[in-house]
Amino acid sequence: MEYRKLGGSGFKVPALSLGTGTFGGKGEFFGAWGSNDVAEATRLVDVALEAGMTMFDSADIYSGGAAEEILGAALKGRRDRAIISTKGTFRFGDGPNDVGSSRHHLTRSIEGSLRRLGTDYIDIYQLHGFDALTPVEETLATLDGFVRAGKIRYLGVSNFSGWHLMKSLAASDKLGLSRYVAHQAYYSLVGREYEWELMPLGLDQGVGAIVWSPLGWGRLTGKLRRGQPKPAVSRLNTALVVDKGPQVDDEYLYTVVEALDAVGQETGRTVPQVALNWLLQRPTVANVIVGARNEEQLRQNLGAVGWNLTKEQVAKLDAASERPKTYPYWHQAGFAERNPFPV
């Protein structure tokens, strides 16, 4: 397994990590992802560790905390071999202060995650989204306190706009507080908006990408093709999951899948393996989170590392997945000598 530096930090993470969205399966939304119990999760963790995929990503809201509990149980006795990444900020309770990035809520969230995970520190802690109602200085001071106390090693965010992230980084620099070194962002061959602003920002500011849903919310598994019905088992069969995820035009999807098929035939790899390998060659990408309902899916995803697409194959996938940009990005793209694509 290849290891990469996480943004501008000195911390190295594996190119792939295992997501725990399938752990627990509580509720309609997470139930559509999967429902691994402790025994099943432990087997997935076994396979991951054997392959050098030592990083595991979770969040307090995944199955109402059950995913963190199951991950903690699966790692019991071998916590020192694992990198744990988890998240907070989203609503976790019915009270007026049970949401957001205030000192009150983050303190409860972090302490709750530590308890459920059965650990005394979190390797990478990320805000699950931006809280526009709490001063960034309050949020950063709270997180910095947990870093100084040894309960968090590195800080990150998720789903931030460019200005959200830059405002926070500027405040960290001004106040001498711990900086965000990771941005857990949606990025895939059918969702390339990350490249427009967040990728150049990440390069400039030393913020590495931890990619979530790299297969386009389950669309790039190789099971969706032109003229064929959806597979019987898929999160895309659940309206709630589809509505809450990125929207993708069918014709565009089929064009990208056909390009993936062509490259897959050239390389002898599967559609998801090619899609994941494309991501691993993009600037700023430090880690790609893969999910798995079972051991077979996990081993398939592990086949995305240890080889690289050629420049010609990358260009073929780039061309098939290119979409018109919104303003001001289409305008900036017209002046490539001043705004080159990140490398």
Can you describe this structure?
39% of the residues lie in helices and 15% in strands. Helix 2 crosses helix 3, helix 3 (66-74) packs parallel to helix 4 (103-117) and helix 9 (250-267) crosses helix 10 (271-280). With 343 residues, it is of the alpha/beta class. The model has no long low-confidence stretch (mean pLDDT 95). The two termini are 23 Å apart. The protein has an 8-stranded parallel β-barrel with strand order 3-4-5-6-7-8-9-10, surrounded by 6 helices. The protein contains 13 helices and 10 strands. It has one domain: NADP-dependent oxidoreductase domain (TIM Barrel).
Tell me what the CATH architecture is: Alpha-Beta Barrel
The structural class is alpha/beta
By CATH's scheme, which homologous superfamily applies? NADP-dependent oxidoreductase domain
Number of strands: 10
Average pLDDT level: 95
Enumerate the spans where pLDDT stays under 50 for 5 or more consecutive residues. Answer: none
The CATH topology turns out to be: TIM Barrel
What is the helix content?
A: 25-40%
Strand order of the largest sheet: 3-4-5-6-7-8-9-10
User: At the first level of CATH, what is the class?
Assistant: Alpha Beta
Biggest β-sheet, characterized? 8 strands, parallel, barrel
